[in-house]
Amino acid sequence: MEYTVQKLAKMAGITGRTLRYYDEIGILKPARINSSGYRIYGQKEVDRLQQILFYRELGVDLESIRKIMTSPTFDPAHALKEHREKLLTKREQLNLLIANVDQTLAAQEGRITMSDKEKFEAFKQKQIDDNEKKYGKEVRDKYGEEAVNKSNAKFKGMSKKQHAEGERLGQEILDVLEQAMLEGNPSGELAQKAADLHHQWLGLYWDSYSKEAHAGLAQMYVDDERFTAYYDKKNPGTAAFLRDAVFVYTGTEKD
Questions:
Q1: Which of 21, 41, 71, 212 has its CA 20 to 30 A from that of 167?
Q2: What is the DSSP letter of 27?
Q3: Per-residue pLDDT tens for 161-212?
Q4: CA–CA separation, 136 and 86 (whole Å)
Q5: Cα of 64 vs its chain's centroid, Å
Q6: CB atoms within 10 A of CB 39
Q7: Amino acid 6: pLDDT
Q8: 134 versus 246: which is more confidently predicted?
Q9: SS3 of 40, please?
Q10: Do residues 81 and 64 lie in contact, with contact meaning Cβ atoms separated by under 8 Å?
Q11: What angle do CA 114, 120, 124 make, to 5 degrees?
């Protein structure tokens, strides 16, 4: 079956303008243009639009979708399997949050009692799941299943006070790094204070600390663009500066 822009847009729940834009940026071209100048879409384009909307639902930006779907190695069947796994994870996260809301309502109505720890369990699990999705493979390859599982268990067991302390330390690290970079010396007092704060921050989340693991994580901040983007979002070069400061702090030699 074939569809015009308006018919396909109505069926997919999007606007005709969106379909025309997808054509302009090259992620969804019509099968043909008819004699009246209308874009015509066939089954192949319908399936491709479904893939695009799956990616959009998962929060993938259009430029990334374009790169994925125009790659010579793009496999629609494999992509659908990945979509399914991510949607199942998302559903599990939503179910946890819904259950947490129900439990909170029951507690407020006096039907049950709810500890402070229980109030934050769903949020902690969501953060663990999000981190697994973003960084899980790299971190597990580097530190092993047991270390990561212990770290996740420790995170889930954190009190409200400990969680707040982690947030505070995380922000203080960024603030001190910003000041230290003005000095430009990874061995300086401010840079070493940032490295020590980072050590303290790790102590909240890691089951055990070692200088080697600390230095390895700091190197990962530079090697993995996702970590680099987090530290460099305000001041480019922050990830590398923190790495250098941690290397000094741990007595690690640069390769």
A1: 212
A2: S
A3: 887 888 899 899 999 999 999 999 999 999 999 999 999 998 888 878 889 9
A4: 14
A5: 14
A6: 21
A7: 94
A8: 246
A9: strand
A10: no
A11: 145
Report pLDDT digits (tens) over 118-132: 555 555 566 656 666
What's residue 174's pLDDT?
A: 93
Instruction: Let me know the angle formed at the C-alpha of 233 by 53 and 62, rounded to the nearest 5 degrees.
Output: 15
Strands of the chain (E only): list them: 3-4, 32-33, 39-41
The secondary structure of residue 184, as a DSSP letter, is T
What is the side-by-side order of every strand in the sheet holding 32-33? 3-4, 39-41, 32-33
Domains and CATH numbers, the chain: 3-69 (1.10.1660.10), 76-151 (no CATH), 158-250 (1.10.490.50)
Euclidean distance between CA atoms 107 and 25, whole angstroms: 51
Cα 95 vs. chain centroid, distance in angstroms?
19
DSSP 25: T
Q: Would the CA dihedral through 233, 21, 7, 28 be positive or negative?
A: negative
Cβ atoms of residues 215 and 143 within 8 Å: no
